[in-house]
Amino acid sequence: MKIDGSCHCQAIAYEAEVQSGSITVCHCNDCQAQSGSVFRANIPAPADGFRLVRGTPRTYLKTADSGHQRLLAFCEVCGTTLYACDVDRPVAYSLRVGTIRQRQQLGTPQRQIWTRRRHAWVSLPAGMESCDGQP
């Protein structure tokens, strides 16, 4: 599915190809802190199907407890987080669902990860694949 998205102020815009129904909800502490919410919804876009069409995001190098590093891209004007990707030669971009114009057409999340960090009052659809940590 071809999608397009942008930050809140429209300074940065992108196009991508994604597979509808491939949303992951992450409950990890980093996603909670970086989103300012209790989880973050992401959808993967293959690197060869992702293209910035306007602006250049700022990036932040995040190092996980495991030592794995990811670049987090955001708009330096409005602060919207746009995506994460591997530092060297990204294979895919983990797009933030809230930045996608067609977000209502992406389907229901298929899995949730880091469920041991999920807040007790957060409920998601029954039967969703779940993982206690990083799959």
Quick rundown:
The protein has one helix at 29-35; strands at 2-6, 13-17, 24-26, 40-46, 50-54, 58-63, 69-74, 81-86, 92-96, 111-113, 129-131. It has 135 residues and is mainly beta.
Uncertain stretches: none
Sheet of most strands: 8 strands, mixed
Question: What is the 3D form?
Answer: globular
Mean pLDDT: 91
Give a structural overview.
With 135 residues, this protein is mainly beta. The chain is 5% helix and 40% strand. It has one helix spanning 29-35, and strands spanning 2-6, 13-17, 24-26, 40-46, 50-54, 58-63, 69-74, 81-86, 92-96, 111-113, 129-131. The chain has an eight-stranded mixed beta sheet with strand order 6-7-8-9-4-3-10-11. Strands 1-2-5 form a three-stranded antiparallel beta sheet, with no helix packed on it. A hairpin with a 5-residue loop joins strand 6 (58-63) and strand 7 (69-74). The longest helix is centred in the first third of the chain and has 7 residues, at 29-35. The chain is globular, with a radius of gyration of 14 Å.
Describe this protein with a few key phrases.
135 residues, mainly beta, eight-stranded mixed β-sheet, three-stranded antiparallel β-sheet, 5% helix
Topology:
Blueprint: E1 2-6, E2 13-17, E3 24-26, H1 29-35, E4 40-46, E5 50-54, E6 58-63, E7 69-74, E8 81-86, E9 92-96, E10 111-113, E11 129-131
Parallel strand pairs: 3-10, 10-11
Antiparallel strand pairs: 1-2, 2-5, 3-4, 4-9, 6-7, 7-8, 8-9
